[in-house]
């Protein structure tokens, strides 16, 4: 387990919710840029994601961390409006229709945000139309889908078909507890990842190549 | 020499009882959940199994006649369609209603109890269930939110509190309650018929009732997975008080159902305390103590907890060994059953755990190889019941056949 130097990053990693809110408020009051504060929060969340993957943290810690982040963002958001959001690109993500599992997807979202992406999280039980709408609106070059119920795999395949049929040239990455190469091939996705850190690596790859071809998502 | 049904019944019951008491039976007993396998095997849809009582009954009988387990799997949690329809039940999607006609039912999670409602829940859970919870989970019971608490209507001068029942909305809700009651009565009749048909064929019923770990009841149905995890951090005292409230209630539920059915095997499925869900301190504080009390309460009343240890609980095994020997069954899903035999072998009868991937995708030889290992290692000196890791639902028929035949043949203690 890494220890974090920044007090705020460390407070979120240790799940000290009151301290997090206190630090966010005092830092805002002392004139620190809201985006810098978000950065520290995300460092902390990335650490939580890693601790989960290494078995030091459990689902309860993960859920609590997500909630602390939500509360902190509620304080920060009014100050962020207008701030020039620097990010490495947009990614649309959601749990596919019929499936409501989102704990795993949320870690992926956390780590992607921590890595500097603008993540548009569509939540759970997401139908094709919602994916397509968000992809059109954001011009994101990458869409992530989470599936844990094998019964929803067929639906995922159809969503991917519909996205392609709508003429969207996006890369599709899928994940979920049982997802592997065979599932990826079956649903005709481009990538899959077993865990959130691999998801970030793949996104980095895609966005590095995409930048070469002048993507401005 | 063929045995008559009564002899078969006693022989099978003794086989299972011996295993539970950690004695060596004549052979390894085999008891599984057939679940929707029964429908598929009989060539009917899951939807028919959920809605058509006659078809359900004959499918459930057939699968037992053909596979001859040591105890019968009661189809009560599948034949629910008419009752759920009458309620406008929203907490489940079931075959033909929200999921396809051949898909298993799914639970619809939600925060059906708000964090602010802990006090109401702890103070008067029945009132909370009637006026807050039912309206949220049954569309037909939405008007229950307009009732006055029944505790107000205790004598002549406050009969006015019954007035809301004079409104069309509540009258419609009461009609729905009546219909749900009829549907439920009808279902019960068929379940009793199933029991009689099984007895005629020499099969005892595997379960006589169901209850839950207090943490799971609160987390599954009321607060939701996320809600209860946040409560661990944000309102631990309320959470503990609610668990205290639920503990005698969960004991009463199990004991009452066991007494009514005359069958002491009480099912307890575990959901939210597995290895991934919480850390060990949280397990020791919020999950295990109340679960243990429920098990002890059942045992004190002469019941046998049959605990379905879902997902992986390998890291909890030491803690979970704190139960009286020979009184409890642990049915393991993905917990390391071989390690469990080492840790719990002299305490708890183990049940399980032929993995679903082998049953669904493997060959009969794969199944036999796994069963052999189970019988050799976990079955050593008794205290073991053969079962799948979850249910036979999606198993290939030839693999199910291999599991039964092999166990009955190779599982004989010599
Ligand atoms: C927690 C849980 C639930 C919770 C979900 C709470 C929530 N808000 O998410 C609740 C209780 C609601 C639930 C409900 C059900 N569940 Co459930 N559930 C689980 C459980 C125990 C853990 C899942 C989890 O969160 N894991 C932790 C996370 C961190 O891991 P993960 O999801 O795999 O995510 C990681 C990777 O897969 C990857 N990843 C995930 N998503 C993505 C996306 C992308 C783009 C990428 C790149 C990577 C990626 O990165 C993540 C981080 O490393 C699993 C069993 C298991 N051990 O997997 C069953 C399980 C998934 N559930 C199952 C079932 C059957 C159900 C129900 C149908 C049960 C029922 N009969 O009602 C319902 C279905 C509800 C629905 N319609 O979806 C089955 C699925 C079986 C199958 N093959 O279809 C499982 C496998 C349990 C089992 N053994 O039977 N469940």
Structure overview:
Chain A is of the alpha/beta class and 217 residues long. Chain A folds into two domains: 7-80, Orthogonal Bundle (Methyltransferase, Methionine Synthase (B12-binding Domains), Chain A, domain 1); 90-216, Cobalamin-binding domain (Rossmann fold), CATH 3.40.50. Chain A has helices spanning 7-13, 17-29, 34-53, 59-80, 103-114, 128-138, 153-165, 181-187, 196-212, and strands at 90-95, 118-121, 142-146, 171-175, 191-193. Chain A has a five-stranded parallel β-sheet, with helices on both faces. The longest helix of chain A has 22 residues, at 59-80. Residues 213-217 of chain A have low confidence and may be disordered. Chain B has a single domain (5-77, 194-410), classed as TIM Barrel (Alpha-Beta Barrel), CATH 3.20.20.210. Chain B is 52% helix and 9% strand. Chain B has helices spanning 5-20, 37-42, 46-51, 53-67, 81-87, 118-123, 125-137, 168-200, 214-234, 236-261, 280-300, 317-320, 337-344, 356-361, 364-378, 397-410, and strands at 92-95, 98-99, 106-107, 209-210, 265-270, 304-309, 329-332, 349-354, 384-388. In chain B, α5 packs antiparallel against α8 and α10 runs parallel beside α11 (280-300). Chain B starts with a helix and ends with a helix. The chains are: A alpha/beta (217), B alpha/beta (414). At the A-B interface, α4 of A face α9 of B. Cobalamin (B12) sits between chains A (53, 93, 99-105, 107-108, 144-146, 148-151, 173-178, 193, 195-196, 199) and B (106-107, 109, 225-226, 276, 311).
